[in-house]
Amino acid sequence: MSTSNQKQYINREYYLCMGKYFQCPMNLLQRVYEKQVVLENIFTRGITVYGTVRVNNCSFHKKVFVKYTIDEWKNFSVINAYHSMYYSDGNTDSFQFKLTVPKDKLSILSSQNS
Question: What's this model's pTM, rounded to 2 decimal places?
């Protein structure tokens, strides 16, 4: 029996790792009022990044985008963050984002780090 025609499948799992644990900024609301936009929370699960951005409620209509890179800013991508009713108060709004890194990008990163 020839093995040349048999296909071999390799099951690979990828996980994102952040270099440092993210800590919510101290005096979060004060920072939001000063900077207008502050990253409040971010964590990974598998190859997905979840985050929350807190925004000063300076107008009713707001759009929040998240810019990210996986190659030290040689290239970047931009995604939308979506308004979250659960974490808003009268003076600030909360936006959430979910970013899943494509597996083909992870395999490129893996080979670059080898």
Answer: 0.72
